[in-house]
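Internal tracking record. Fields below are filled automatically when a chain is submitted to the structure queue. Please do not edit lines marked as system-generated. If the sequence contains nonstandard residues, flag them in the REMARKS field before resubmitting.
Queue: standard
Priority: normal
Entity type: single polypeptide chain
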Amino acid sequence: MKPISILFALVIAVMALTFIFERSHADPRMPNVTLPTAAATPRPMSLTLQKIVSAQLRINRYFHGSVVPKLKTCWNSLQGKGNIAMKYTYSRTANEKWAVQQVSVKNSSLPTVVQSAALRCMKGAVAGTSFSIERDDGTEDAFVLNWNWPIPLPPNAEQITARMFNNDGGGAGSKGGCDGEGAIAGCAHCMEDNFCELVCVGANECEAKGIVGRVGQRRATKCIERGKCVSGGPFGSAGSLSISKAFFSIGLDRDDTAELSAFPALFSSN
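SYSTEM-GENERATED OUTPUT FOLLOWS
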């Protein structure tokens, strides 16, 4: 055997022995893990899929029980076909109810004239309605709903509604969003890193405080939520979606968040 070949074989043998020795003397407290290539997105505190679905079904029981019966005739007379997202603001009453105070259009795929007509229909249907305050609502004095409605209502609306309630929220929609029909997340929530994220169910406002660090390494020391908020639609819920889709609709960049000047790290469902 040539000297170079012998030297190469010895080097390989030494490397193999060194590897075996290091593996046998590794710290038993250190697990054999594979580090992720990117940091995982922090999950929301206290949010579970069950709570999200429960909140959405609560609101749909209110809509289908108190609003839809008065809405149908006017709604189905609207011209055009599409979707309209509306924002509803409720305030706490002395008799432990959330009473409607204001309704407005957030966005729509329909012409302005149809949006105006739809808003008139909805205002007439929700006038004088309310839903009960529950223990989880705490002492908040405002409750905001972001609800995405189809125009016209589907011809099999009753069957879809029954399926939604019977399946604990699982609808037939496959378009994503908070309800399987494309409803956009319009609520805010404090994450584990004290920054705010847009979610389907959370608070009306969220504020990250004490933001420090350089660009790319921003962190907040405290996060405050204000008001209650639920986003969804009348014929589905997060029960028909994956957990990740139910939690998140829009990812907010931490550095962009920290640079906001008009409302420092403040997000609301406006």
